[in-house]
Amino acid sequence: MTLAAAAIPELTLGDKIWRIRWGVVLLLILIGGVGTLALYSAGGMKPEPWAAKHAIRFSVALLMALAVALIDIRIWMRLAYPFYIVSVLMLVAVDLIGKGAMGAQRWLDFKVIQIQPSELMKVALVMALARYYHHLSREQVERIVYVFPPLLAMLVPVALVMVQPDLGTAMVLFFAGTAVMFVAGVKLWKFLLAGVLSVASLPIAWSMMHQYQRGRVLTFLDPDRDPLGAGYHITQSKIAIGSGGLFGKGFGQGTQSALNFLPEKHTDFIFTMWTEETGLLGGALVLALFALLLAYGFVIARSSRNHFGRVLAMGVTINVFLYVFINIAMVMGLIPVVGVPLPLVSYGGTAMLTVLFACGLLLGVSVHRDLLIPRNS
Predict the structure, then answer these.
(1) CB atoms within 10 A of CB 240
(2) Which portions of the chain are predicted below pLDDT 70?
């Protein structure tokens, strides 16, 4: 059976537009709107330097996501491996000629635009693994020999990202890849074995970490060990969140952010700033929006009749969950500070582009949910 024969029935453009989950689009707009408001406040109640650019980028990227959703999902399946390979090559290029900032080398400068390839890899890895497992039977998935290719595909970018160094993104790649393998049917005992080996390798991982990364781990275990140095970020973040109370200090009235006690208030710690000004209720609202988005992701994955779509949708949903969980846990002091942005809220071009591209794929899975794609195609 050919790919063309598997499309039953072929959808017109009007059909595809009708089948888009507009509830997901509305949630994305609301989350992006929160980001614009937060950045407006972070900029001193002015659209510059962050809010206006954020809003423009979001609008353009959302239109791109809708366009991605309308493209036949089989095309994205064919592009999965090439996209992964290009992303790996870009990570290698970052390590060789990348642009550095704040002690890290994570960007490629193309003059007109700067790209962070590690963000692109988050989607590329999920797409590649979804295509890989689409072609395997249930019996093959359960055989250990078929675990090594996806494991290698995951560990290569993780190693390249660690070199930059970017512990947060490496964590997202590792856990997202592992979760996709589990969703695809890899047995639990293999993950338990991998967990034991990971614990045994902790001394090696510790020796490979940069000094500032070790400091972050030690500060996580004892935040008061260096309150004016490594512990400064998390200490100020906790003060800001706690001072917001139930209703917050008022929009634009956050003292920790306005007086610049809170570092990186427009990127990694934007949730802290938002919660200081809007309180527990404002923070809960943001979490509720993300929870609804994740719920939509699970529903879309379950509704897909093709295996590639199911694994891809689950992979994208898990990716978004990891973004949110790591960022929120980080700013609350539950895990070490690792530098993961809050999707569509934190300021940043490549991260926003990546998240909305991934959400476009998620919408595309919903649009093409009835498409039958042979497992041997």
Answers:
(1) 26
(2) 1-9, 98-105, 111-112, 189-202, 204-231, 258-261, 376-377
Beta carbons within 10 angstroms of residue 100's beta carbon: 11
Kindly report the number of other CB atoms within 10 A of residue 88's CB atom.
19
CA separation for the pair 147, 17 (Å, rounded): 38
Please tell me the distance from the alpha carbon of residue 348 to that of residue 108, in angstroms, as a whole number: 14
The residues, any chain, with a CB within 8 Å of residue 345's CB and separated by 6 or more, are: 31, 32, 34, 35, 38, 270, 271, 274, 286
Q: What number of other Cβ atoms are within 10 A of residue 5's Cβ? A: 10
What is the rounded distance in angstroms from the CA atom of residue 323 to the CA atom of residue 343? 7
CA-based nearest residue to 74, from 7, 138, 141: 7
**Whole-number Å distance between alpha carbons of 59 and 40:** 16
302 in Cβ contact with 171 (< 8 Å)? no
Q: What is the largest CA-CA distance in the chain?
A: 65
SS3 101: strand
Cα separation, 282 vs 291, in Å, equals: 14
Q: Which are the contacts of 372, defined by CB distance < 8 A and separation ≥ 6?
A: 6, 7, 8, 305, 306
The model's pLDDT over 89-112, given as tens digits with 9 standing for 90+, comes to 999 988 787 665 555 567 787 766
Residues in the chain: 377
Note the pLDDT of residue 264: 77
Helices (H) and strands (E) in the chain, counts: 17, 3
Euclidean distance between CA atoms 121 and 166, whole angstroms: 13
Q: Could you identify the residue written with the tokens 């507009």? A: 22
Q: CB-side exposure of 75: number of CA atoms within 13 Å?
A: 8
pTM for the full predicted model = 0.88
